[in-house]
Amino acid sequence: MTAPDIDPLSKRRLKMWIRLLGVARAAESSLREYLRVEHGTTLPRFDVMAALYRRRDGATMSELSRMLLVSNGNATAVVDRLEKDGLVRRTASETDRRTVYVALTPEGLRQFERLAADHEREINALFSDLSEQDVEQVTALLKRMGKGDKA
Amino acid sequence: MTAPDIDPLSKRRLKMWIRLLGVARAAESSLREYLRVEHGTTLPRFDVMAALYRRRDGATMSELSRMLLVSNGNATAVVDRLEKDGLVRRTASETDRRTVYVALTPEGLRQFERLAADHEREINALFSDLSEQDVEQVTALLKRMGKGDKA
DNA sequence: TTCGAATATTTTGAACTTGAAATATTAAAA
DNA sequence: TTTTAATATTTCAAGTTCAAAATATTCGAA
């Protein structure tokens, strides 16, 4: 039904995207299940904690949602739940009363470190078919894909 | 002579995954916004319609959720809304009263064909930095990654 | 045939996600 | 100074997502 394609590359890019999405979703599914069954937590919670682990001194809500590519409201909701569970702490900024800093609590830090090792093992198993060269190649190509980000 | 490998393959696979997830999420964000602004629809709706387009004769709910890697309940909800909007039709199976077939209505088909062309253009633009060789390489590598799917 | 396992779908409750609107605050401009 | 624009976060409503439970039905085995 669609008109004959003058630019077959376009179709190939589409196929590539569909495959990329498929791989990402399948791996996410696996991870989600792993986190739920083995650690009683969820991927969004893990993502927030991982971001806060990288920013040990704390990050603002805005930084957090930018790092994770999620909306502000979303970040607020997940942080609310983590805070209620004592894994994360909000601190008001001294210099700008609009700003809130979020950081892992000691308990949050302990829990995340337990999670992180298992998470890496799980990822490693999921992609165990790829050789070192494959991994480097994919990483390099993905790096180039991420460059033109305007959003 | 060479430095000891302080960055084993496991860590590289993890980095690759983080980058893969980043690229996928950024592209999904773009698509989501595009579908919302230009077509007043959402990615899940598009995904369902795309699956039904590939299965023009209709698919069961189970097939649908398997194709899209989403839960049954999720598929039910999205199909409910599409049905309410007249884009999709449920039909009871003659031979198995448990089974329901879902298919695009003529209006759903028309709308999807309008969407699909634009969607392809959008994807093509998102990954315009990649040469044909790049695209083939990524596709091939992703194909290998998807092999070990046990879920 | 009847019972129990397996299959197909929907329902349910909670968490997640979004975009937009509402608040509060800061910074800049007139 | 006063007003306006920009920034940071939360709240809100609607939609998405999940896993588990509930229904309904089919199928296989005793």
TrEMBL record, chains A, B:
Q: Which domain of life is it from?
A: Bacteria
Pfam families membership:
MarR_2
The taxonomy runs: Bacteria, Pseudomonadati, Pseudomonadota, Alphaproteobacteria, Hyphomicrobiales
Q: Which GO terms fall under molecular function for this chain's record?
A: DNA-binding transcription factor activity
Please report the stretch or stretches of sequence annotated as the HTH marR-type domain: 13-147
Q: Which GO terms describe its biological process?
A: response to stress
Name under which the protein is recorded: MarR family transcriptional regulator
